[in-house]
Amino acid sequence: MTSKTQALFILSLITLWYASNIGVLLLNKFLLSNYGFRFPIFLTMCHMSACAVLSYISIVLLKIVPLQRIKSRSQFLRIATLSTVFCGSVVGGNISLRYLPVSFNQAVGATTPFFTALFAYFMTLKREAWVTYGALVPVVAGVVIASGGEPSFHLYGFIMCISATAARAFKSVLQGILLSSEG
């Protein structure tokens, strides 16, 4: 593959990733709020099942990446832990979409780096540069201000949105810890 073809392929993958994420987010919002679908956990199950089936097709049938077998109980437990945290973040996000507008949901999601820095500090004692923490202050302050002025604010939806955002950040830090060691 030439470098130009490879760059085009990578750009296509990134575009498809963004498009699918935006599509799933808007579809979930439409189903949960506008259409009146009242089962966000079932919707998450459908999402996870579709991801599993498409991953299987991509790995086993299309052979996009090589199949990797789980080699130990420890490795299985690490993968299961990450999967559980990820699933919890998706459930929380879907529940919050039932009560909050997409724009507010995404604004709260912008605090993910704040939670990532917080969890990284408490779990690994890794400190970021003060400039990094300083850059997070306006983001968090903006979300606090937006929360106070949001006309469609719903406390339960907000709690679920913050929980989903924190779970995404927790998964990132946990992923770094669990997948960096041997096995």
From TrEMBL:
> Where does the record place the Sugar phosphate transporter domain?
10-175
Going by the UniProt record, its keywords in alphabetical order are: Membrane, Transmembrane, Transmembrane helix
Alphabetized InterPro entries for the sequence: Sugar_P_trans_dom, TPT_transporter
Q: Where are the transmembrane segments?
A: 7-27, 39-64, 76-97, 103-123, 130-147
What name does this protein carry?
Sugar phosphate transporter domain-containing protein
Predominantly, its location class is: membrane
Query: Any one cellular component term from GO for this entry?
Result: membrane
**Topology of the protein relative to the lipid bilayer:** Multi-pass membrane protein
The places in or outside the cell where this protein is found are:
Membrane
Pfam annotation, one family: TPT
Asked if Transmembrane is a keyword of the record, the answer is yes
